[in-house]
Write a structure and sequence with these properties.
Layout (H helix, E strand, L loop, with lengths): L7 H9 L3 H4 L14 E11 L4 E4 L2 E4 L4 H5 L8 H11 L7 E3 L7 E14 L6 H14 L5 E5 L5 H11 E2 L4 E5 L12 H14 L5 E5 L2 E4 L4 E2 L8 E2 L7 E3 L3 E3 L14 E2 L7 E5 L6 H7 L6 E6 L10 H12 L3 E6 L11 H8 L3 E2 L5 H12 L6 H8 L22 H10 L4 H22 L2 H9 L14 H8 L2 H9 L14 H7 L3 H9 L12 H10 L3 H9 L14 H8 L2 H17 L1
Parallel strand pairs: 1-5, 1-6, 6-8, 8-9, 16-17, 17-18, 18-19
Antiparallel strand pairs: 2-3, 4-5, 7-15, 9-10, 10-13, 11-12, 13-14
Helix pairs in contact: 1-14, 1-15, 5-6, 6-11, 8-9, 11-12, 14-15, 14-16, 16-17, 16-18, 18-19, 20-22
Length: about 600
Amino acid sequence: MEAASGYPLGRALSCALRPASSRCSGSLALGGGCRAVAEVRVLVINTGGTIGMVKEDKGLAPEANKLVKALKKMPMLHDDEYVKEKKNSDFCEFPDDTLVLPLSKQNKRIVYTIHELVPLLDSSNMTAHDWAKIAMELEKYYEQYDGFVILHGTDTMAYTASALSFMCENLGKTIVLTGSQVPIYELRNDGRANLLGALLFAGQFVIPEVCLYFYHKLYRGNRVTKVDAGSFNAFSSPNLPPLANAEVDITINWETVWRANTKKKFKVHTQMNGNVGLLRIFPGINAAAVKAFLQPPMEGIVLETYGTGNAPNNREDLLEELRKATEREVVILNCTQCLRGSVTSDYETGQTLTATGVISGGDMTPEAALAKLSYILSKSHISWEQKKKMLSENLRGEMTVVPTGAKICLADSKFIQVIAKSLNVSCKEELEAIRDALTPSLACAAAKTGDTDALKAIEEMGGNLSCQDYDGRTPLHIASSEGNVQIVDYLLKHGATVHAKDRFGATPLMYAVKFRHEEVIKLLRKSGAHLSSQELKNIGTELCSLAAKDDVYGLYVWYLTGANMEQTGYDGRTPLQIAEIRGHVALLDFFKKKYKEENEQS
């Protein structure tokens, strides 16, 4: 290993190989010594669709208030014995719309709640108004749940998935759309497996995207299209491999996962522009029909062209209508009619379209292109030129963009060469296996020592900076426990998630609170971090204990996390009441100042 010690990864490795106690003082157990069972909460938003439909005189139609009762009778989707145990031991009440999955291989217990929208819809009736309703529900419950599943009809699921991917800005949690081709109530159906798979992904992994799960595959939501009306394998992602496969084992392609790379909080954008449409070019298309289609109030269209973005260049009447439209600031986005492939400038017929002001849509699906157009045109505060520029940018992983700077090849890494040589491996797959095996320890060690160069090297080789070590901690957990603001900032800018939990259910924010790193807490909160329901379980007792000790700064640190200071301890008293009884003047002043600030803000 000496040959590698001079390189950034070599320095990280030397730290990673030290005993765990010296490697991360911030890894104090937040639970017991045995492997803890983490309880995660998932919200299921039921919008309707085939999965919950029943046969009526006029055909299949959604029925309200039926799904929960049916799921409670399915052992694979509800562990009734666990609920009974919890009620007996904790004297807790599970609402009627709450269900629990059996314990997973990852030692997680997924508790999920079904929330039905009114009315339930066949997805053929879905509109942009309904997308906004879904988005607002996500925003409303965002901090109360660890992940989200949206039950939806298959016919327009690709449109909704694409739209939500743009509407959900600065997303840091997993959102999974799913449904079925056959109602879940029928003997032979695909609904049970699709719902179970969606729940497992939403509850067990932090994949900060709007995804679509169907027939054992997790796709990026804005990359899919429905390709088969008569098969359980109904969806395809033509230009991007699945994010994950759920076969015997769940395999996640972490290199493909899209990350927001932002330090902003989650919010939803619901004011989509409805003056957009799809126009498909076909041989002999009438110029008058195109002219009529492009008239006000139309503000943007997705033009579906042949092959690599081609249209007839010997039709001056047609080209003139397109040119006139772009001159009056109608945005025209060029997408291919082909299932696979991308718009390029290889052919003269394609270059002719570009000359008229038509913008390349790359390899976007028509569904994603339409949603992106509606999203960008709704932003009234930016200019038409800025809108055109945004259409060419990769906003949510919806299109493939060739990187300008080449990443370091694994075979070119001297550090990996040393490891590979000692293990006598050379093929690409084995090199990647070495990288993936070393990345968690190396990245966490680099986060502890503040080695930004090592983190850069790991990322350039395709390493995942949100990887988890043997205790489920990510580099962000380590940097937060060490109070290293610069490393926390770097990780957040490079897609690290603030919502990751270790095996004790602790988030990076909890580590920052435990070790009282005020600046880290502020940075994490600015990026949308919040304490989970599991972390908030016994917060009242903790706050009262700090009040009894007259620990003003300890309470202030909790206050920074957004914790409710009115929580009661085991004896029913609040921290303020404890401070009054003990006569802690400084603590009482703190509460007075806090209440004054809250009143001024309100």
